[in-house]
Design brief:
Low-confidence stretches: none
Number of strands: 0
């Protein structure tokens, strides 16, 4: 049960980090629409920096429970979250190459997990 708990914490932390890309894309959209004068640009930039700050602290606490190779292999799950956000939030489409890449990442994480 303790092992499951530490992996849940690791993946929640990775999920938290994936929000950085959302804030970054929203800031980019705001910049393209209103330039440097849009107040939402600064809101999204602030949220992006705040999210990175919280993630950095949480990441340091979480990786104490893992071998670094395991923690960093699991961190690649970020790519999966990024693709999900692109589809569900920004209504982008997934290509076959994206899906194959996600599968390769997922298989890689499973291989590393197997040897822990």
């Amino acid at each position: 049960m303790e092992r499951i708990k530490k992996y849940i914490l690791l993946h929640l932390n990775i999920l938290l980090f994936s929000f950085t890309s959302i804030f970054s894309k929203l800031a980019s959209i705001e910049y393209n629409n209103n330039g440097i004068y849009g107040w939402k640009l600064y809101l999204f930039l602030f949220l992006m920096v705040l999210n990175c700050f919280i993630y950095a602290i949480a990441w340091q606490k979480v990786i104490k429970r893992f071998d670094l190779s395991t923690a960093y292999a699991n961190r690649s799950v970020y790519l999966i979250w990024s693709q999900l956000w692109a589809v569900f939030i920004f209504h982008e489409s997934l290509s076959v190459h994206n899906i194959v890449g996600i599968c390769v990442v997922f298989i890689g994480v499973l291989v590393v997990q197997r040897y822990e």
